[in-house]
Amino acid sequence: MSLSERYRFLRSELDRLLICSMSFSCLLAVYRVIHTHHSHFLFLVWNLFLALIPYALSGWLTLFRRETGRIPRILIAAVWLLFIPNTFYILTDLYHLGDGYNDHGVPQWFDLIMILSFAWNGLLLGILSIRQMEKLVLPWMIVHGWAMRRRGGKGNAWLFVYPIMWLNALGVYTGRYLRFNSWEIVSNPFRLLGDITGMIIHPLRNHYAWDMIFCFSILMTLMYLMMKRMSEALL
Questions:
Q1: How far apart (Å, rounded) are the C-alpha atoms in residues 45 and 47?
Q2: Which of 70, 85, 134, 203 is deepest in the core (most CB within 10 A)?
Q3: Among 1-5, 10-14, 22-26, 225-229, whose mean pLDDT is lowest?
Q4: Which residues have CB under 8 Å from 76's CB, separation 6+?
């Protein structure tokens, strides 16, 4: 079996596992709605769908980058950059862990497993998607002198990863606290840019926001690098 065939087999196996994991999460949410007659946790399914978009885009670029022209690749990458914060955003849905306890319809452990499963799937989709984009973008950065080549031919991954994670953290903050959606950078750009500009102009007044963005970006970077190294160690 050639290397390319082996890669496609592993990718297919990984996709099947992801589908099983995401289906399990959705079934938990649907069961909760049927059992309690409350639909407020269905937003988890929508959030998971938004998290699936960047993984689909990075997967498309990985498989069909040679058949895709330069301009379409740039446009797809731009859309990917807008939607990738949705993957890590689901981690903040853990805030909703106590929302449904008043209906006494399901035990506490059920809500814990349900929300945690959605957060886990979002984390997986985010890390896998960024890994795919790293493989595509980092060689280009090395060629153009934006990243240094290390021993063994590999570039300094953090030069790509941390800026992406910082933008992710900014996107998570604007989504969770400023209540913006990914598409509002097109539908409502002036309000979004105005709020971000205000945060930049008055950093001390908005230190809560920058504290969250900094800490969350470090956490996501560490999780990504740790899972990347773990996967290499297990091969």
A1: 5
A2: 85
A3: 1-5
A4: 57, 60, 61, 68
Q: What is the secondary structure of 75-97 as a DSSP string?
A: HHHHHHHHHTHHHHHGGGGGGGG
Mean pLDDT of 215-222: 96
Q: Which range among 24-28, 80-84, 106-110, 192-196 shows the weakest confidence by mean pLDDT?
A: 106-110
pLDDT at 4 over 60: no
| Buried residues in 107-121 as b, exposed as e (16+ CB within 10 A) | eeeebeebbebbbeb
What is the pTM for the complete model shown? Answer: 0.87
Q: What are phi and psi of 149, to 5 degrees?
A: -85, 125
Nearest-10 Cα torsion for 93, 160, 125, 72: 120
**Taking the C-alpha atoms of 67, 71, 73 and 75 in order, what is their torsion angle to the nearest 10 degrees?**
-140
Q: Quote the tokens at residue 57.
A: 């885009």
Domain boundaries, the chain: 3-234
Closest CA to 170 of 95, 81, 96: 81
Please give the C-alpha separations between residue 179 and each of 173, 174, 184, in angstroms, as whole numbers: 8, 6, 10
Helices (runs of H) and strands (runs of E) counted in the chain: 9, 0
